[in-house]
Design goal:
Blueprint: H1 2-21, H2 59-70, H3 91-94, H4 107-112, H5 130-141, H6 160-171, E1 176-177, E2 180-181, H7 190-198, H8 201-206, H9 224-235
Antiparallel strand pairs: 1-2
Helix pairs in contact: 2-5, 6-9
């Protein structure tokens, strides 16, 4: 009986050790990992305000696309792999690593400004640009809100340079480039985008048509205007214009 009791105690102790070892996420004490409480609401996509303020950084429009394109690919911080115990696929999970109003003390910001082999995204992926880092910093300092707006978009503009390339660069290239060929698809150049446009995968994915993988992955669907721009560009011959 005594030996059996000792065995049970040992098993329980081992289980506690294993459970604690699996808790890799360092939650910010200011929000307890809740993603609410002064940060603009919960984890769902918030309703879009009618106009974008040029002085405000919006999570849905700017921050989530940066993180989705550079951090949540398969093998990294997606909801399946969650490398190092970190999942960055939703607002609620992202703000666990943020101190609203204080970028300098936020783990998310500290990781993206690192240099060398320890930076995020890790080599051979390209580092975030200075402009992207500045957006993340400004968003955090503005309170890290879960906000959304209807940006300026004109379906009459659908050239590659003015419309398609900015969409690809901001919301697709992070997951679809020569160093990270998600789905074996490259969207980093006009020639590569044209291949995907002509085989139907580009429009099928961004329009979330049946039979296609919805894109962007782990981020909000493109706006109706952006999808229409892509459709019109493809219909016009997918030119490098």
């Amino acid at each position: 009986m005594k030996n059996k009791f000792i065995y049970v105690v040992a098993v329980v102790a081992a289980a506690v050790i294993v459970l604690n070892a699996c808790r890799h996420e360092i939650l910010n004490p200011s929000n307890g990992g809740s993603g609410s409480g002064g940060t603009g609401g919960g984890g769902g996509t918030p309703p879009a305000v009618s106009n974008c303020s040029p002085d405000t950084v919006y999570f849905v429009n700017s921050i989530m696309p940066i993180i989705a394109s550079n951090c949540t690919m398969s093998g990294c911080h997606d909801n399946i792999t969650h490398a190092d115990g970190v999942d960055l696929t939703t607002y609620t999970k992202i703000v666990r690593y943020v101190v609203p109003g204080n970028a300098a003390n936020s783990k998310l910001y500290k990781e993206i400004i690192k240099t060398g082999s320890g930076r995020m995204p890790p080599p051979p992926m390209a580092p975030l640009t200075a402009a992207q880092i500045a957006l993340v910093q400004k968003w955090i300092n503005q309170g890290a809100k879960n906000n959304n707006c209807v940006g300026s978009c004109d379906t009459a503009t659908f050239t590659y340079t003015a419309a398609i390339k900015p969409i690809m660069t901001g919301k697709c290239v992070g997951c679809h480039n020569p160093n990270n060929l998600g789905g074996n698809i490259d969207l980093s150049t006009h020639a590569a985008v044209k291949v995907t446009a002509l085989n139907g995968k580009l429009y099928g994915s961004v329009a979330h048509l049946t039979g296609y993988s919805p894109m962007p992955k782990n981020s909000a669907k493109l706006s109706d205007c952006e999808i229409r721009q892509i459709q019109k560009w493809i219909t016009a011959g997918s030119q490098n214009n």
